[in-house]
Write a structure and sequence with these properties.
2 strands; mainly alpha
Length: 476
C-alpha cells in the first residue's frame, strides 16, 4: 500500500511532478545560493572553493538528497516519524532535523526581511547616493526596530504560503517563483558580463588556485553544499514524504541538484564580473549583497536601478521558497507527531521562530543576550552550518546504509524495478561507507578550526545538543 494514501488530510500531497520539482528546487535554492555562496566563495579564494563545492554537490549532495527523498517517501512521514517508525533509537536524527529547521528559521527571516526592505529602499532612492550605501546598511541592521518590522512582514508571507497546504500553497508558489528567479538572475548576469574587465571576475570564480585550500575552506565548501541544497535539516525528507510512489526519485534528485547549483553559479556570475569591473573587493563578507551589489548597480546608471530592483526581488523570492520548506519541516512534525491541525501547527511554529528571530535581529545591533561572547544570529548560523547539517546528513546516510534493508531501498528508488538506476551499487557504497567517513573527517577538522578561531565553545555546544537529542528523543 502507498503509505502516503493513509496519511492525515492535513499533510497533503504534490499534485504534479513539476510542482514537486519546483518546490524542492525552491527549498534548495535560497539565501544559501544568492547571499551566502558569493561571499563564502569570495572569502575562501574563489575558484578553488567553487571546485571543491561542485565536487561535494555532485558526489555527496546528490547522494544525500536521494537518500532523504527515499526515506521520506518510503515512510510517508515527517523527519521525526520517518526514523521513529523504523527504530526509536534513531528518533534523535529526526529531532535534529526539526531543531535545525527551527534554528535556521531563527535567523533566516531576518536576512529575508533585509531583502524585502531593500526592494523598498531602492524604490525610494538608495542608489542616488552610492557613497552612502555602506553606511545605510550598517545603520539599518544596527537599528533595533526597522529590521524587526521587515522580518515580521517576511514571516507573515511564509505563514500565508504554508497555511494553504502542500499543493495549494507551497507547490503553487514554487511554480511561479522559481522561473521568475532564473529569469532575473540571467538578466543581471548578462549585463554584468558586458562590462569592461568582467572576465577577471569569471577567472576569480572558475580558475582554481589550490594553494589556497586548507581544512577551513573544505569545511566551508561542505557546509555550503549542505546549506545550499537544504540537506540534513529534514526539508527534503519531509518533501519526499508527500511524493507519490510513481515519481522517478533519481531523475527528480538530479533536476533539483542541477537547478540549485545553476542558481548558485548564476549568482556568482551576476556579482563577480561586475565587482572586478568596478575594482571592488570580492571578500566583502555577509554584507556583500547589501553593500557591494547596490554600489555596483548605482555605477550602471538608469539600467542599474531596474537591475537592482530585479535582483532584490529575486533574492526575496529565493529566500521565501527556502524558508517555507523550513517552516514545513516543523509544521509536518507537529501534524504527524502531535496531532495538530495545519493552522495550529503553522501558528505555533511561527511564534517560536518569531521569538528566535527577534533575538537574532537584535544581536546584530549588539543588543540581546550573548553566549560565549557571541550573539544569537551567529550562534544559530554556526550551530547549523558547521555542525547540525553535516552531522544530520551523515546520520541519514548511516541510517539508510546500516539500518534500512538494502533490497527495500532499491525497491523504493527504482519504483519496484520500473525505474532504471544502474549506479545503485555505487550510490549505496557512497552512502554506507564513503560519505559518512568523508563528512566525519571534514567535521572534525572544522571543530578543530573552530577552537583555533575562538568558536570552540559553540562547536562543543552543538555536539552536546546532538548528544542530548540522542538521550531524550527516545521518550518522545
Amino acid at each position: 500500500m502507498d503509505v502516503n494514501s493513509s496519511t492525515s488530510p492535513s499533510r497533503g500531497n504534490w499534485s504534479s511532478k513539476i510542482g514537486f520539482v519546483m518546490a524542492a528546487a525552491g527549498s534548495a535554492v535560497g539565501l544559501g545560493n544568492i547571499w551566502k555562496f558569493p561571499y563564502t566563495a569570495g572569502e575562501n579564494g574563489g575558484g578553488a572553493f567553487v571546485a571543491i563545492y561542485l565536487l561535494f554537490v555532485i558526489f555527496i549532495g546528490f547522494s544525500v538528497m536521494l537518500t532523504e527523498f527515499a526515506v521520506g517517501r518510503k515512510t510517508g512521514l515527517s523527519a521525526v516519524g520517518a526514523f521513529k517508525t523504523t527504530d526509536r533509537r534513531w528518533t534523535f536524527v529526526g529531532i535534529m532535523g526539526v531543531l535545525s529547521g527551527l534554528l535556521i528559521m531563527g535567523f533566516y527571516p531576518v536576512v529575508g526581511g533585509w531583502a524585502i526592505a531593500y526592494i523598498y529602499k531602492i524604490s525610494t532612492g538608495l542608489l542616488s547616493q552610492p557613497t552612502a550605501i555602506g553606511d545605510s546598511f550598517s545603520g539599518f541592521i544596527a537599528d533595533s526596530m526597522q529590521p524587526l518590522f521587515w522580518m515580521g512582514l517576511y514571516l507573515l508571507l511564509n505563514i500565508f504560503v504554508v497555511i494553504r497546504g502542500v499543493s495549494g500553497g507551497i507547490e503553487k508558489a514554487g511554480k511561479i517563483l522559481m522561473p521568475l528567479l532564473f529569469i532575473i538572475l540571467i538578466i543581471v548576469s548578462v549585463k554584468g558580463l558586458t562590462l569592461p574587465g568582467a572576465m577577471a571576475g569569471l577567472e576569480f570564480l572558475f580558475k582554481p588556485d589550490f594553494s589556497k585550500i586548507d581544512s577551513s575552506v573544505v569545511l566551508a565548501a561542505l557546509g555550503q553544499a549542505f546549506f545550499s541544497l537544504s540537506l540534513g535539516m529534514g526539508c527534503m525528507l519531509t518533501y519526499g514524504s508527500y511524493l507519490r510512489k510513481k515519481e522517478n526519485l533519481v531523475q527528480t534528485t538530479a533536476m533539483v541538484t542541477a537547478m540549485d547549483t545553476g542558481v548558485a553559479l548564476l549568482a556568482g556570475i551576476a556579482m563577480f564580473p561586475a565587482m572586478f569591473a568596478f575594482s571592488m573587493e570580492p571578500s566583502a563578507g555577509p554584507g556583500l549583497v547589501f553593500v557591494v551589489v547596490p554600489q555596483l548597480f548605482a555605477e550602471m546608471g538608469s539600467i542599474g536601478f531596474i537591475l537592482a530592483l530585479l535582483f532584490f526581488i529575486g533574492l526575496s523570492v529565493a529566500a521565501l521558497t527556502s524558508s517555507v520548506s523550513l517552516l514545513e519541516v516543523v509544521v509536518a512534525y507537529l501534524i504527524d507527531e502531535k496531532g495538530f491541525s495545519r493552522v495550529t501547527a503553522v501558528i505555533s511554529a511561527s511564534i517560536v521562530m518569531a521569538l528566535l528571530c527577534i533575538l537574532a535581529s537584535l544581536s546584530i545591533g549588539g543588543l540581546g543576550p550573548k553566549l560565549f561572547d557571541t550573539g544569537a544570529f551567529d550562534i544559530f548560523d554556526l550551530l547549523t552550518d558547521k555542525i547540525f547539517l553535516a552531522v544530520g546528513g551523515m546520520l541519514v546516510c548511516l541510517f539508510a546504509g546500516w539500518r534500512l534493508d538494502r533490497s527495500e531501498l532499491k525497491k523504493e528508488i527504482t519504483n519496484d524495478g520500473k525505474v532504471s538506476f544502474p549506479l545503485f551499487n555505487l550510490w549505496y557504497a557512497l552512502i554506507k561507507y564513503i560519505i559518512p567517513v568523508a563528512i566525519a573527517i571534514v567535521a572534525i577538522s572544522g571543530v578543530k578550526a573552530g577552537f583555533d578561531s575562538d568558536k570552540g565553545d559553540i562547536m562543543l555546544l552543538g555536539l552536546a545538543i546532538i548528544a542530548l537529542c540522542g538521550v531524550f528523543s527516545k521518550k518522545l
